[in-house]
Amino acid sequence: MSLDERLIAYVDGELPPAERARLEAEIAADPGLAARLARHRALADGVSAAYATVLEEPIPPRLTAAASAANDRAVRAHPARFAPWAAAAAALVVGVVAGRVVGPTSATLVAQDGSLTAQGRLDRALDLQLAADPGPVKIGLTFRTADGRVCRTFESGPDRLAGLACRAGGRWTARTVTAWSPEPQGAYRQAASETPPELLAAVDSLIAGEPLDAAAERAARDRGWK
Amino acid sequence: MHGLQRQIVEVLPRLRRLARVLARDVADADDLVQTTVERALARQDQWRPGTRLDSWMFRIMKNAWIDESRARSRRGRVFAPEEQGEVIGFDGAAAVQARLTARDVARAMARLPEDQRLAIALVLVEGLSYKEAAEVLEVPAGTLTSRLVRGRMALLADLEGDAA
Question: How far apart are CA A137 and CA A126, in angstroms?
Fold first, then answer.
């Protein structure tokens, strides 16, 4: 594997633990390597951020209609190309379009409508990763609140942050964020000691019942955290 | 509305996002999403409940896009040449970040070969793992990583200018 290949796999959370540890040691010893890693990380965040706002756009009615069609014959009644009513109807769709994200593209949390919204790699991890999944961001507990919302704890090594984010309005909003560092290489790791106490307190204040188990976590993800 | 249809509606924002990476403009992207949804519904017996609907639909979109690209080249339609972005000196990651506006990224992505753009879209934009992305593209893992690496090196060279 070439050096860039390893750095890219590292950024994507795809290096096996042993190789990850070896690369981290090399990076720690070589500022040139750290700069090269930063380029790959900036690119990954920039590409992700460049398309992130598409998720906040209202869905054109013709697409919702196509998905809701009783059968494919009904769908074909609406030609795909240049439906003249589509643009006008889009204006009638009730939807909240989030304010423009201002700031560096690598931001992990962005202030939006009075709350902190997850962006970039943090948003991706909260959306897609399960508790056991490797990556620069690790997901801890997933649980439901009394009003049925899904919340997840996270630890982001690159951002040196740990926190608790809850799903609301199609976004992950941080409820608690705290400074956090990954444990040094080779340190004895114990699950309970990894989560900062203030985070555990926040979980205790919000959780209804038990945390989701692996199957329930996967099912909740596949339903889009509804 | 049936269960599958409701789930497809929930995946629509992400289908639109992936299509936006592939297609040239919003109208073409939404046409691609519509074709994808129509094909998915026509073949819903092929979907195995319990597997990831997003990956299955991404694969349908990939195939629809390849079909459309072939039709486009048969008609002899070519993309307008991209204007050359201004080249500025490379000054570390800060310079990359400063230059990575959505427009610059989209322009650089548009210059990539189709297969590299697809690999990057699935991993960086949609957040799929290498394994999941390789399955969507129906290629071996090694092919996926080599497309990812070549594409990303090309993007870096493009966005940083020749000084890198």
Answer: 9
Q: How many domains does the structure of chain B reveal?
A: 2
If asked whether residues B106 and B71 sit together in one domain, one would say no
pLDDT at B38 over 60: yes
Query: Which residues in chain B touch residue A59, judged by CB atoms under 8 angstroms apart?
Result: 9, 12-13, 16
Q: Which position has the token pair 């289908």? A: B15
* B35 within domain boundaries: yes
A1 touches B137 (CB < 8 A): no
Q: Is A16 on the interface with B (CB under 8 A)?
A: no
For residue B97, the enclosing domain spans 93-164
The interface predicted TM-score of the complex, written ipTM, equals 0.83
- Report pTM: 0.57
Helix (H) or strand (E) holding B4: helix B3-22
CB contact set of A130 (below 8 Å; sequence gap of 6+): A139, A214, A217, A218, A221
The answer to whether residues B1 and B70 belong to one domain is yes
CB distance from A55 to chain B under 8 Å? yes
